[in-house]
Write a structure and sequence with these properties.
Shape: flat
Number of helices: 8
Radius of gyration: 18 Å
Structural class: alpha+beta
Strand content: 15-25%
Strand order of the largest sheet: 6-3-7
Length: 210
Amino acid sequence: MIDEGFLNNLVSDPKWSSFRRRTAEFIQNRLGSNEPATAFNYTDIMLAGEPFQTTAFMHLDGVGLAPGNVPRANEGEIHQSVEPVVIVALDPTRGFRHPAKKKLPIPGRKELRTESYMAEFPNFAAVPDLFPERLARMIIWRSGWPHRGNTGQGHVHTGLVVEWRWLAATATTVGDEAGHGIVELYQDILERPGFKEFIGHKGDKRGAKS
């Protein structure tokens, strides 16, 4: 989790250039950490809200600013995901899906064409997060709990999937104080058939590396 005091101090920074620099430094520190409480994950960024979220994504994707503060691609280093992001469906009986794209050869030509399709995943999967598609990020953004919907009317799981790295870090470092049934969900997923073996083989130390 990102310290609320840090976020409040960051957002109150009167200089946009200073805000962007401090956000980039924060993300770089997270990318370089293997400690559960401070390792990079997307859910923390999304829960932090704006303008931190967009500024963090700009740093990860190498987006700079043209005159007039207009975003411009290819202005900085792209921080490419090396290790896939483990995503788990909240419903233990279901998988999850998301629109994706793939490159296919054009018959008789050396060029490739792009084709859209619906990527299907089992109950838990290690999802690639390669630029520019950022498939793992987009799945978490569109369907991730708890930032998508949060709790209401007594219903906890209003999202469809959870980012395992965030859930494990929150459950083991914050515990019951995190609320929202986080520890219970963490324990439930650990008990799902084959999940411990899956984590042991895949690992999930980081969300991205530069």
